[in-house]
From TrEMBL:
UniProt-annotated stretches for the region Disordered: 134-153
Highest taxon of the lineage: Bacteria
A Gene Ontology molecular function term of the record: metal ion binding
Domain VOC: 10-134
Segments traversing the membrane: none
Compositionally biased residues, Polar residues: 135-147
Protein name: Glyoxalase
Source organism per UniProt: Mycobacterium aquaticum
Pfam families: Glyoxalase
Keywords: Metal-binding
Length: 153
């Protein structure tokens, strides 16, 4: 088998299917601080490009019905990383103000003894999301023991 020789790959942006573009734009803008870079609301094609500091990070495509399914192959969850546990808690406070449903109560460690951890919640379409940090969560509970907290919520 031949293996492609490529430069080191990094995730570019993530595209999500949504049921209500306007609602999703407002959620990602207000709750997570993304800025709209481009919004198209033609009758048959409705989508938005969201980013931070002018860099595309997330695309939203209004082409779905129903809610996110954890029972079918595809996206498991989408994680956003910040530098500090204080930043995770600041995002958590904003999400609580917006009445966002959480999978766990407060910041949790990724697993027993891990310094990394974060918060786990869903967007308006039920898409599972995480905001995490690589350190600072070592004193937080790990709700699933040695299994990753981000794996079975």
């Amino acid at each position: 088998m031949t293996t492609a020789i490529t430069p080191r790959l990094a995730t570019g942006h993530v595209g999500l299917n949504v049921t209500d573009l306007e609602r999703s734009i407002e959620f990602y803008r207000q709750a997570l601080g993304f800025e709209p870079l481009r919004i198209v609301t033609e009758e048959q094609h409705q989508y938005a490009f969201l980013g931070s500091e002018g860099v595309l990070r997330l695309t939203l495509w209004q082409q779905s019905d129903g809610n996110f399914s954890a029972n079918t192959p595809g996206l498991h969850h989408l994680s956003f990383q910040v530098d500090t546990i204080e930043q995770v808690r600041a995002v958590e406070a904003v999400l609580k103000e917006h009445g966002v449903p959480f999978a766990y109560d407060g910041v949790v460690a990724h697993e027993d003894g891990a310094a990394s951890g974060g918060i786990f919640f869903t967007d308006p379409d039920g898409i599972r999301l995480e905001v995490c940090t690589p350190s600072g969560a070592q004193d937080s509970p790990a709700p699933t023991g040695s299994a990753p907290s981000c794996g079975f919520f």
